[in-house]
Amino acid sequence: MKTTTLLYVEDDPEIGTLVSRYLRERGFEVKWLRSGEDAGAFAEGCDLAVLDIMLPGLDGFTVGRRLKKLAPQMPILLLSARTSIDDKLQGLEFADDYLTKPFHPEELEARIRVLLRRFGTFASEPVAIKHLLFYENENRLVNRDTGEEIVLTGKQFQIFTYMVRHLGQILTKEQIFEAVWGEPYLEGDKTLMVHIRHLREKVERDPNAPEVIETVRGIGYRVRA
Amino acid sequence: MKKSGAGNGTKFRDSLLFRYMMIVLLALLFLPVVVSALSILFTLFPSPAELKYGSSDELQTVWHAEARRLDGADAAAVNARLRALKQRYADATLFWVDGEGRTRLQLPERGGLPETWTADEAIRFMKRSVDADPFTVVAFFGPEEKGPGFMVLQMPRAFLNIEWPVQSYASLYFGLMLFMFVAFVVMSWLFFRNIRRRLVRLEAAMARTDEDGLPAPVAISRPDEIGRLEHAFGVMADRLREGREREREEEELRKQLISSLSHDLRTPLTVIRSHVHLLGRERLSAQGAESVKQLEAKTETLGALIDNLFAYTLMTSGKYPLRIETCDIVRLVRQSAATWYPLWEKEGIEAEIELDGVSLVWKADRNAFLRVLDNLFQNVVRHARSGGYVGIRAQVLDTGIQALVISDRGPGMQAKSDAKGGGIGLAIVDHLLREMKLERRTDSDEGGTRIAIWPNREHF
Q1: Closest approach of B227 to chain A, Cα-based (Å)
Q2: Are residues A163 and A209 part of one domain?
Q3: What is the three-state SS of chain B?
Q4: Domain extent for A55
Q5: Is the complex ipTM more than 0.95?
Q6: Which of A102, A170, A220 lies nearest to residue B303, judging by beta carbons?
Q7: Within a domain: B40
Q8: pTM, full prediction
Q9: Do A201 and A183 fall within a single domain?
Q10: What is the pLDDT along chain A (225 residues), one digit of tens a residue?
């Protein structure tokens, strides 16, 4: 299995040491740079960049924008100590996610994994969800209990893939609908509910007590590993 | 920057005062000047040289002198003298009458004269000649002019009076006065109209502002008082602009300072947290594990506090310009709840979100509203965890307006919470709600807290 390489830019030595140690323990290869100036040169071969916003020399936004230009397919996670809302906006123009300090190392890892999955870096590996095994690249969903393949319709597959890519996250109805159908969700639209019901009939052991696709009442749905 | 001592720099002859004084002076001096000028003209204009034969007075004097000199002369001498005089006064008619009253030499010969003069005829002739044309001089011979005999000179008045222009000078005088008066009025009017125009232009320039809300610079028209005013105005506008610029720089600096301060405070916090995390993975006693849990919770709180503190500082200094747009509030609430849900789950807080089919469309800034929700939800976690419940629903108020209601079953806000620091969070909430023209009402008792948010009268 190919190890995932992270480009990590952090000027604070203590945080840098702790975080890169933690991430290495968790099985990532970490290229830790103390400044963002030559981040571009190290971006080659990296799967994801973690940037601290307050960098000496070049500020994190500039570095981020430069990286995004250089490698548009590489997700960028911002570590921000900044408070202001406009900074968040500015950051999110190029960054794919952000985390404010002080962050929990486990949360950082979780966000990294979500991002990698979203960008398809993990797509080649099967994801185990309860009694299911999902091969995204091969468009295959296997029931581990029976060893049988579950055949999904196009929309069902899209919905399921979207949820798996955001594994562990709660997704609102609007989010799912707009990602899959590509048009604005109208309050009261039952389309998504119907699709989820059909999807559950295929993937759940007991569609009346769903385990794979959880309903988060009043908010949306969640798929957890 | 330009020299500001314009007040002393302007020459007096450039000033408006000087120019208007010149106009007034011109008008005042005009009367005596014109009068004396005309008097000079009077004496100069009808100069004697211009009269071919001198004035009538001179002619009279000469003629009488000649007559005196011819006292006792014989006829031939008188004739010769008259002929000589005729040479001098070519345009005149001359004749003489001897002691016997006979008309003698006439130069030129002319009719209408009596051969012999009686007293009657002489008197009639004299009477006719008075103030008539030709001008007539009658002189008796002899030193006392007693005669006998007399000689007469008749000169057409045309040669004596060159158009003596008393009448035309008077009308010229009045014309000039009128002209000067009109000229004075017109000049004054032009003078003040010019001042007024420049003042109006300056006023317009002061009212006109550029994108910074500062008056645009004014071109200096002339180096007089208004010119100085324009200059002073320009200097003032420059100072304002500099001040604005400096203010902006200071704001930027302050923002930078707050950002880096925030960063500097969070960095050690992150380190603490990472170490606490490492500690948590060691084998610990129950007491130790509890301590680690407390440490984690406190670093979390501290981080949020720093965040809110700086956010509040920036916000109240007007650094957060809100982008108000029409927002689907239900959607924002779901989005926010989705991020808080895992924490609620972990803390054993049951979330009851009843927003299906509800439509709340308000004007808000997306991020600001999310921040409001963040702070409210954070307070639920911090202060109302014991209630184990958070409810989010829409409710129609007595006024008929639909409000968003967030409720918990905590000990209420009067109760002393074991995690303090909700104050600044609520301050931010109130600030942002005010900016978005939203209203908040909080009902709190031992049974829990209910926070209702709804658009106020100015909202729509």
Answers
A1: 46
A2: yes
A3: CCCCCHHHHCCHHHCHHHHHHHHHHHHHHHHHHHHHHHHHHHHHCCCHHHCCCCCHHHHHHHHHHHHHHCCCCCHHHHHHHHHHHHHHCCCCEEEEECCCCEEEEEECCCCCCCCECCHHHHHHHHHHHCCCCCEEEEEECCCCCCCCCEEEEEECHHHCCCCCCHHHHHHHHHHHHHHHHHHHHHHHHHHHHHHHHHHHHHHHHHHCECCCCCECCCCCCCCCHHHHHHHHHHHHHHHHHHHHHHHHHHHHHHHHHHHHHHHHHHHHHHHHHHHHHHHHCCCCCHHHHHHHHHHHHHHHHHHHHHHHHHHHHHHHCCCCCCCCEEEEHHHHHHHHHHHHHHHHHHCCCEEEEECCCCCCEEEECHHHHHHHHHHHHHHHHHHCHHHCEEEEEEEECCCCCEEEEEEECCCCCCCCCCCCCHHHHHHHHHHHHHHCCEEEEEEEECCEEEEEEEECCCCC
A4: 4-118
A5: no
A6: A102
A7: no
A8: 0.59
A9: yes
A10: 468 899 999 888 888 998 999 999 999 999 999 888 888 888 888 899 998 876 666 677 788 888 888 888 889 888 875 554 455 555 566 778 878 777 888 889 888 988 888 787 666 678 888 889 888 878 889 998 898 999 999 999 999 999 988 888 889 988 999 999 998 888 778 899 999 999 999 999 999 999 999 999 889 999 987
